Amino acid sequence: MSANQSDFEDQVSMTVDDDEISGYESDCGDSNSAVSDRFDVFTRNGMIRLEEENSAHDIIKTCFLSGMGFAGGDTNLVAIHKNVSSDLTRQARFESFKIFSQAVAQKCGGDAKVKYAWYGGSKDELCEILVHGFSRCREPAPNEQSYGVGVHLFSPVFAYDGALSSAVDEGGLRHMLLCRVILGKMETVAPGSKQSHPSSKEMDTGVDNLQFPRRYVVWSAFMNSHIFPVYVVSFKAPSPNG
Question: Per the domain annotation, does 90 fall within a domain?
Fold first, then answer.
């Protein structure tokens, strides 16, 4: 793991606990109705906007822009929304995530390797995930190499890779989820692989590189037990196609 990636994990290692999705609203909210309407689709689906003074907002913004690499200078982070819904279904999904974290930790000698990771998509797709969970493993883009059949997420320091999977909405914004992911015991997945499940009972997830992972692959059987969306980051960025 690179120094930058380690720094991100140290800074944003806000352990998944009950206040991740409790209904508190301190340091959150938005008094500007015009801005609120712009993100109504998120607030209606159990998200609360972080104020810019919030410490988590500062950390995520800094690491997101750094992870955008050469495009960081032309990228504007517009809003961060946090999953703090007290909805019973969402609470149950969160409790399940914690139970699986404990089970994987026990299997792996005490460390479930719960990390942050980016997932890009359209606004509608991300809202569906927030409300109902993951329902499919998206096919790679025509110019994208496949690393197995599963949900592909990206290391915190490679936000740009996740942004390539995002889509511009009607307001000119792109959106990504910042998720907590149970990685457990990882195995290398080769480019072009059609692997769709762990190679053995000991393994949990796939990565493109064990030493310096850029891409995480969560197999479909685990996509709603090993991934929990915590934040939505909305931003303006130049088109990757120029």
Answer: yes
Q: Which backbone phi and psi does 218 adopt, to 5 degrees? A: -105, 120
Total number of domains in the chain: 1
pLDDT band at 96 (very low <50, low <70, confident <90, very high): very high
Asked whether residue 37 is domain-assigned, the answer is yes
| Residue-range definition of the domain harbouring residue 8 | 3-236
Name the band, by pLDDT with cuts 50, 70 and 90, for residue 7.
Answer: low
> Does a structural domain hold residue 119?
yes
Amino acid code (one letter) for 205: T
Output the CA angle 147-96-210, nearest 5 degrees: 30
Q: Which residue type is seen at 107? A: K
CB atoms within 10 A of CB 210: 9
Q: What are 28's strand-pairing partners?
A: 50
User: 117-148: per-residue pLDDT in tens?
Assistant: 999 999 999 999 998 899 887 776 656 677 88
CATH number of the domain residue 219 falls in: 3.90.228.10
pTM for this one?
Answer: 0.87
pLDDT-based confidence at residue 38 (cuts at 50, 70, 90): confident
Contact (Cβ atoms closer than 8 angstroms) between residue 186 and residue 213: yes
Tokens of 44: 């209606």
Residues 6+ apart with CB under 8 A from 96: 224, 225
Residue 241 within any structural domain of the chain:
no
